[in-house]
Design a protein that fits this description.
- The chain contains 8 helices and 10 strands.
- The strands form 2 sheets. Strands 6-7-8-3-9-10 form a 6-stranded mixed beta sheet, with helices on both faces.
- α7 links the parallel β7 and β8.
- Helix content is about 35%, strand content about 25%.
Length: about 240
């Protein structure tokens, strides 16, 4: 029977994400991640923090199954990602939401069509698309911008469209890679408050960031990396400043 990742994510009671002694080497003898183990429960809001080169991006790429671990295992919804066949990988990625620092919107399509595109690739009925897309644009405060193209929107508005696109398929997991990296402080807070609202609705949110102020203020779980290792995992806290 074919895997139904969305169903598995909806129903799983165990951790939705689990890293089991994971290491990743890009060059022989130089680990980007070194024996990482942690679990993220359904409904958690987790920050992944650390300096440049600490392994944050590698961690996210492993969650997205863009790369495979050199050692250890990565599980999402109880499935070991390295064991997925190529056709299953694309289906898996469609079952989770992803927001990137550079938005990655389709430049030749307006806000409505950028969000609707995420539905069309999963073969959602046109009648359902007409209901879901306006609802998502309303959630992120862009009801009146549905005809605007990316070049006609501010960075914050583009990130809101990207967030609506990530949420339109009702994902159980939302991964955000430096979602405030290209935004001014006021807009950054607006995006983070939206992510917090999404989390309150039941979505597991994982944010990779280096924004100290946001992390310190929001007091969520913080996993801090240093040179490919976890040096701190606080269930509720801020950005950890420590010498290791």
């Amino acid at each position: 029977m074919a895997y139904d990742f969305h169903r598995d994510l909806q129903s799983i009671q165990a951790p939705v994400i689990h890293f089991d002694h994971v290491s990743k080497n890009y060059q022989k003898g130089i680990p980007a991640l070194d024996d990482i183990s942690f679990s993220i429960e359904k409904g958690e809001f987790v920050f992944i923090v650390g300096n440049s080169g600490s392994g944050k991006s590698t961690l996210l790429r492993l969650m997205l199954r863009e790369i495979a671990p050199t050692k250890g295992k990565v599980y999402v919804a109880g499935r070991e990602l390295s064991r997925l066949h190529r056709y299953q990988v694309s289906k898996y990625r469609r079952s989770i939401g992803v927001v990137f620092q550079d938005f990655r919107l389709l430049k030749d399509r307006n806000a409505y069509d950028n969000v609707a595109f995420a539905q069309r690739v999963t073969e959602v009925k046109p009648s359902e698309i007409k209901q879901r897309v306006p609802r998502m644009l309303s959630l992120v405060g862009l009801t009146e911008k549905y005809k605007a193209f990316p070049a006609e929107m501010s960075g914050g508005e583009q990130q809101r469209v990207a967030l609506a696109r990530a949420l339109v398929n009702n994902p159980v997991i939302l991964l955000a890679d430096e979602p405030t990296g290209n935004l001014d402080p006021k807009t950054s807070w607006e995006i983070m408050h939206l992510l917090e609202e999404v989390n309150r609705r039941g979505t597991t949110v994982v944010v990779v960031t280096h924004n100290h102020e946001v992390v310190d203020s929001m007091q969520k779980r913080v996993i801090m990396l240093r040179k490919g290792r976890i040096i701190s995992d606080e269930k509720k806290g801020g950005y950890v400043y420590a010498k290791y």
